[in-house]
Design a protein that fits this description.
heterodimer; A: alpha/beta; Nucleotidyltransferase, domain 5; 3 domains; eight-stranded mixed sheet; six-stranded mixed sheet; 26% strand; B: 2 domains; seven-stranded antiparallel sheet; 9 helices; 5-oxoprolinase (ATP-hydrolyzing) activity (chain A); Oxoprolinase-like (chain A); N-methylhydantoinase A (chain A); ATPase_NBD (chain A); Hydant_A_N (chain A)
């Protein structure tokens, strides 16, 4: 009988990575495909299972779609129903600036998210003890355009959701709806309102893009997938549809989980997961990835539990030509190799800033580098920031995907060596190329990982 | 990247984490929600080394207070676990609710740095709850004054000092918790910087720190060199001092000197006032620091910037009052002085500056007793609108330039006090008209549900709005009133202390920002 594998898929900015790990701890099967050639996640999984001849026992998916929709403002605008008198709250926020030196602070709520014409105040009031002090007046409920997602955030709903529940019951069936007491049952009305609006804005996207993935997989006889979340957990399709906000940054969170596993018992580690589009930086203290209660995504800042990952807008796609020109990657390149040094310096400065701000000093930390491009730049960056040791996991190009598995997979890896023109040693395992510059010593481990140590 | 740059990032990161600790542990709403607190690191001689990204008004204001403490307690004599505090405006402090606490950081047997925090405490006594009486006539009516004194010795608290502190506040539990939050933050800083100096050596730490200051100074010099050697002035006026309604002018002149250096002179500003709008010099230093940051935004925010500043504050004036002036309502003075400085700078370095922001932050202290005899108190800070600019309209309700206070969420306020916030909205139409309109102020309506209360209100811009720029209209003015249960309305001026009865509705509307550029045809002026 076929073994029932745990299958994971990580849809990044440039690639779609798949790992299927057998339950007996045997070697995992992997695939890495350009995202542009595999826009249909379900088809990619079905094709992979047919090609490999497996029927997975479980499927876990991480995707950049929700985060991209929020970053680009292509998620849906929402209708806001709130306590009468608080309709302007999206414009008022907390009135402070995240960076007091910035001359051009962003508005507290992105303009696309909450058009003023779609904000409605409903009379009725719950007080701080959770008691109804003004009855709800349902006669004022507006009729809303069909299909438009609705964010419902009433004062003190986290203490007593009765008014939110009664309004919800009056909305037309099928209305995409987010209730603040479910999305973010915490005090401080603006923070709860923003999280609720963002959650609602993602519902149409999840319904039209992710729910069909689940349906297609089930129709193909495969198990219902789970969708990875920003805090490292995963949700069923039903749960994801009901509460999509935690879907943002699921891939980076999976990367952070993988980094923490590979860091093992060292006191401090910095994770660099650099794919084609962005580089994700995570931090590990005493074996556990750092966590946060606030997600920062572009100009937005909102309340959501997550692993603490910062994204840098430098990716490998823009550097591939330069890496070829420098002889770091095979093939002829057209770009100036100098841009690699620039990218290394910029990433190094970002890594150092991110780590030091969390009191992790790079010279005391292990750098764990993965993603399709991370291993190529890791030693150069480590040299700049003073990290004495770099760990490159086996199949580093699929590091984030491996973090989606509940148990670390065994990744079959053969490192092919060649000597670079500049005296560096280049090791390629088909998912990524690790570069060992002069002055660094490489030690392959039994598990397929590479340890790079700076010469004393 | 140089060792200096690494130290800068590490220390700025540490200052931010100190700030986070203050916000997480503080109990009084004005600190915890309003973010009226700040953290910074100093060299043993009092020069500031790194600051948290928090509240410029307090960050700049902490600098002279550290010097004030050092004048009484030299750093060389400080020992591990010592803690020193002050709130004295004549020892470098701001106003009495802001207590500055410093702790030495000891390495290799000597003080290599000082960790400092400043926090607006809920109440330090005086004639009105919240210790910001708008009608105070001298410092003694404003609360307990603490000249620099030693609060902790080797980690242990001085029982006498603690007893006096807690006996002179209406909210001892909050003061205790907030002071502990300050101590926890400076203690964390001491731990981290000690660990750092153990690794790199105390001498290297000091050397790199000096380099950071020199780099900031040099960066400012480069930026100043781009400004022509000339002089510019701007004048603003407060709408009364809290006792009389006469305008209180504030004149700022900035002069780009050879060197290059920058002279800032407040000559021509009003004599010190009977009421509490006097600002101790620390506040004006904060305003100047904001200007220097604007001139050299990429320079590190450290004392190197101040090396090129000549600041003249006429003695006995509203910007440098003599003892025992009342000083609690300094916020509007410092905010408007900042507006004047930025306006003068815009003349010398004409670029596409925004129109004036509302130039004021309303500070409101409310205290009362509910129907069951339970006492309550809170202080909150409300912003006005941002000015319109060449690129976009002004934002609504923004804590601009030297201020960065957060508002008090209704869900937190109603937990503290028997109040229902019936509206928190844009002050519609208060943004100045323009090609790019100014941002609106806020409209906040509070119903007192039981018992009685007393309000201390410190506002500004009740009479004249924030000016527009390049043909833009002025912002709308602020307004304060109470609507009684029978519908009668009681308006109040920009500084007021008054009673509030159960059932009455208190409505505050803050000022809007100025508009930028002439409004297009058909736009209605506000």
């Amino acid at each position: 009988m076929t073994m029932r594998h745990a299958l994971v898929l990580d849809q990044g900015g440039s690639f779609l990575d798949v790992i299927a790990a057998p339950p007996d701890g045997g070697p995992a099967r992997i695939a890495k495909r350009p995202r542009a050639e595999a826009t249909d996640i379900a088809a990619a999984i079905i094709d992979f299972c047919q090609a490999e001849g497996i029927i997975p026992a479980s499927i876990t998916i991480a995707t950049t779609l929700p985060a991209n929709a929020l970053l680009t403002g292509t998620a849906s605008p929402v209708a806001l129903l709130t306590t009468a008198g608080f309709e302007d709250l999206p414009d008022l926020g907390r009135q402070s600036r995240r960076d007091p030196d910035a001359l051009d602070p962003p508005p507290p709520t992105p303009a696309w998210l909450s058009p003023p014409a779609l904000r409605f105040g409903i009379p009725g009031r719950i007080d701080a003890r959770g008691e109804e002090v003004v009855p709800l007046d349902l006669s004022t409920l507006p009729s809303l355009p069909a299909g438009l997602p609705v964010a419902l955030c009433l004062l003190f709903a986290h203490r007593n959701p009765v008014h939110e529940n009664r309004i919800a019951a009056r909305l037309p069936p099928g209305t995409p709806l987010s209730l603040s007491h479910r999305v973010d049952p915490e005090t401080r009305e603006f923070e709860r309102m923003l999280a609720t609006m963002l959650d609602a804005s993602l519902k149409p996207l999840v319904a039209t893009t992710l729910a069909p993935v689940a349906q297609a997989l089930v129709a193909a006889g495969l198990p219902e997938p789970r969708f990875a979340l920003a805090d490292g957990r995963a949700a069923t399709p039903g749960e994801a549809l009901a509460a999509p906000l935690p879907l943002v940054l699921s891939g980076p969170a999976a990367g952070a989980r993988a980094v923490a596993r590979w860091a093992g018992a060292v006191p401090f580690a910095i994770g660099l997961d650099m794919g084609g589009t962005t580089a994700e930086v995570s931090l590990v203290r005493d074996g556990a990835p750092l966590e946060t209660r606030t997600i920062r995504l572009g100009p937005m800042e909102f309340r959501c539990r997550a692993l603490d990952v910062e994204s840098i807008a430098i990716g490998g796609d823009a550097l591939t030509q330069a890496a070829r020109a420098a002889g770091w990657l095979p093939g002829a390149g057209t770009a100036d190799a100098e841009s690699l040094a620039v990218a290394e310096a910029m990433l190094a400065e970002s890594l150092r800033r991110i780590a030091l701000r969390r009191n992790i000093h790079p010279d005391l930390a292990l750098l764990v580098a993965g993603g399709g491009f991370g291993p190529l730049l890791a030693a150069g960056i480590a040299g700049i920031i003073g990290c004495p040791r770099v760990l490159i996991p086996p199949a580093p190009g699929l590091m984030a995907a491996s973090g989606l598995l509940d148990t670390p997979p065994r990744l079959p890896t053969t490192w092919n060596h060649r000597q670079g023109a500049d005296g560096a040693l280049l090791l390629d395992d088909g998912t990524a190329t690790a570069r060992v510059p002069p002055g660094w010593r490489v030690t392959p481990r039994d598990d397929g990982a590479l340890l790079l140590d700076a010469a004393a | 990247m140089s060792d200096n740059a690494i130290l800068r990032i590490a220390l700025e990161g540490l200052a931010d984490r100190m700030q986070d600790m203050l916000l997480a542990a503080a109990k009084s709403p004005v600190a915890r929600e309003g973010m009226d607190c700040a953290a910074a690191l100093f060299l043993p001689d009092g020069r500031v080394l790194a600051q948290a990204r928090s509240l410029p008004l307090l960050l700049g204001g902490m600098i002279p207070a550290v010097s004030g403490i050092l004048a009484r307690f030299p750093a060389a004599a400080m020992a591990e676990g010592d803690g020193f505090l002050t709130n004295d405006p004549w020892s470098g402090g701001t106003h009495l609710p802001d207590i500055i606490l410093i702790r030495p950081i000891i390495a290799e047997g000597r003080t290599v740095a000082l960790a400092g925090t400043i926090l607006h405490h809920q109440d330090v006594g005086g004639l009105a709850p919240g210790s910001i009486p708008p009608d105070a006539r001298d410092i003694f009516q404003e609360g307990l004054r603490l000249p620099p004194l030693q609060w902790r010795r080797g980690g242990a608290e001085d029982a006498g000092v603690a007893t006096i502190l807690l006996a002179n506040t209406r909210t001892p539990a909050m003061l205790r918790a907030d002071l502990d939050a300050q101590w926890a933050a400076v203690t964390q800083a001491a731990t981290e910087v000690s660990a750092l100096t153990t690794r790199i050596g105390a001498d290297a730490f000091t050397r790199r720190a000096e380099s950071l200051l020199a780099e900031a100074r040099d960066a400012l010099a480069t930026a100043l060199a781009a400004i022509p050697e000339a002089e510019a002035s701007a004048e603003v006026a407060l709408e009364g001092d809290g006792i009389t309604p006469d305008p209180v002018p504030i004149c700022a002149t900035i002069r780009r000197l050879p060197g290059p250096r920058l002279a800032v002179d407040f000559a021509g500003s009003a004599p010190q006032t009977a009421g509490p709008v006097n600002a101790a010099p620390s506040g004006l230093l904060a305003a100047c620091f904001a200007l220097l940051r604007r001139i050299a935004p990429d320079a590190a925010a450290n004392h190197g910037l101040l090396e090129l500043l000549d600041l003249e504050l006429p003695e006995g004036s509203v910007v440098n009052p003599r003892f025992p002036a009342a000083v609690n309502a300094r916020t509007a003075t410092v905010k408007l002085a900042t507006n004047a400085l930025l306006a003068a700078h815009a003349q010398l370095a004409p670029r596409r500056a925004r129109a004036s922001n509302a130039g004021v932050a309303v500070v409101l202290s409310a205290a009362g007793t509910d129907g069951d005899g339970r006492r309550w108190m809170f202080t909150e800070i409300l912003a006005g609108g941002e000015g319109g600019g060449p690129d976009r309209p002004g934002l609504h309700a923004l804590s601009a330039d030297v201020s960065n206070a957060r508002n008090l969420p209704a869900e937190v306020l109603e937990e503290i006090a028997p109040i229902r916030v019936e509206a928190f909205a844009r002050h519609a139409g208060s943004g100045g008209a323009g090609a790019q309109p100014g941002g609106d102020g806020v409209r906040r309506a509070y119903r007192l549900l039981s018992g009685t209360a007393e309000i201390s209100y410190r506002g500004e811009r009740h009479l004249a709005g924030a000016p527009g720029a390049l043909g833009g209209g002025a912002g709308g003015v602020a307004r304060l009133r109470i609507i009684a249960t029978d519908g009668t309305e009681r308006p109040f001026p920009s500084k007021a202390r008054f009673g509030w009865m159960a059932g009455e509705l208190l409505i505050i509307e803050t000022a809007g920002g100025g508009g930028w550029g002439p409004p297009s045809q058909g736009d209605s002026a506000t």
